[in-house]
Design brief:
The protein has 346 residues and is an alpha/beta fold. The protein has three domains: 3-63, lambda repressor-like DNA-binding domains (434 Repressor (Amino-terminal Domain), Orthogonal Bundle); 71-166 and 303-330, Response regulator (Rossmann fold), CATH 3.40.50.2300; 168-301, 3-Layer(aba) Sandwich (Rossmann fold). Helix content is 39%, strand content 16%. The termini are far apart.
Length: 346
């Protein structure tokens, strides 16, 4: 016999009451489990499993507005990013979306492009829209927020904020030891823009590790990004600057993959081969890094995973499941591809 007919369920929208009738349980019990309310803790695991299985089988969809009114919640968070369309920001937002989608949360996204007035304005708007928490991406939080907040690439310790950070010291160890193992001693560096949250931590890590392993950093072989261009043009003119200084170097460690790809183009236009004449190392491991010619050696930070961790941490705070940590460290990984090789002999 058809379960739907047996339980008196009609075709179309399946109600919570109908799911309860189907299982022979009270609507309150079913509601407690499907809404993950505190009262569900006393319900046996077997019953919870039966309820969730039946809801899936019957294609039950909770009434969002009814749930919002009943619980006085919006099940919505805000995401404040420096840039949404770039490879860095989009990968993190994708991880946030993947986690929230499984838990029936919505999110509103804004991009401030490091405009302080816009950042303050958007924070206020998101709060007015009823978001229950905020995730920031490559954005420095300086004041204690009024809502639970998780910062991806946040480096300031602020009360009420959980920072999701990469271990930049470990990243520098991986990158510089790789270049040193290939006999590179004259290494050029492309520093990040001062407005990027990771810039200082990454450069501090590089300087510390270089001193420890005996790599001298020549100021004439250091250039700094001064724009927020999300394309390879970010690194192209800076690589031209390095070449114009007529200082010998056998490798470049770029701030990120996009700037590294732009640098490779500049070197190739000058008649230099990568990696035979100059090696190039990036940072991030964006989706296209493996498909450029040559494919890019880089330090991988798991951007998608960082977005998921940020979303999980925020929901745990919103739902009061545990005390929030002030920092969650993410381990980097060295990915060796075609753009690095042994240093050319002088």
């Amino acid at each position: 016999m058809n379960h739907t007919k047996k339980s008196g369920l009609k075709s179309g929208v399946v109600t919570l009451k109908a799911v309860a009738q189907h299982l022979g349980l009270t609507p309150g019990t079913v509601s407690a489990v499907l809404n993950d309310s505190p009262s569900a803790r006393s319900i046996p695991p077997e019953t919870k499993s039966r309820i969730r299985a039946a809801a899936k089988e019957l294609n039950y969809r909770p009434n969002f507005f009814a749930r919002t009114l009943r619980n006085k919640r919006t099940y919505t968070i805000g995401v404040i990013a420096e840039e949404i369309g770039d490879s860095y920001g989009s990968a993190i937002v994708s991880g946030i979306e993947q986690y929230l989608r499984k838990r029936d949360y919505f999110f509103l996204t804004v991009a401030h492009r490091h405009d302080p007035e816009l950042l303050s304005h958007y924070s206020h708007i998101l709060s007015e829209r009823g978001v229950e928490g905020i995730i920031t991406v490559d954005t420095t939080v300086v004041e204690t927020p009024s809502l639970p907040t998780v910062a991806v690439a946040g480096h300031k310790k602020v009360k009420g904020v959980t920072n999701i950070v990469l271990d930049h010291g470990r990243a520098a160890v991986l990158a510089l030891n790789h270049l040193k193992s290939l006999c590179h001693e004259r290494i050029a560096f492309m520093k990040g823009s001062p407005i990027s949250s990771d810039s200082k931590a990454r450069w501090d890590g590089i300087c510390q590790v270089a001193a420890q392993i005996g790599i001298e950093i020549d100021p004439d072989l250091v250039v700094q990004i001064d724009s927020n261009d999300p394309t390879p043009m970010l690194g192209y003119p800076l690589a031209k600057q390095l070449l114009a200084r007529n200082k010998t170097f056998t490798a470049l460690f770029a701030y990120n993959d996009i700037s590294a790809i732009g640098a490779i183009r500049a070197f190739q236009e000058q008649g230099l081969r990568v990696p035979q004449d100059v090696s190039v190392m990036g940072f991030d491991d964006i989706p296209g890094a493996a498909f450029y010619t040559p494919s890019l050696t880089t330090v991988r930070q798991p951007l998608n995973r960082m977005g998921e961790v940020a979303a999980q941490s925020l929901l745990e705070r919103i739902e009061g499941r545990k005390e929030y940590p002030s920092e969650i460290a993410i381990e980097p990984e060295l990915v060796v591809r075609e753009s690095t090789g042994r240093a050319a002999s002088s």
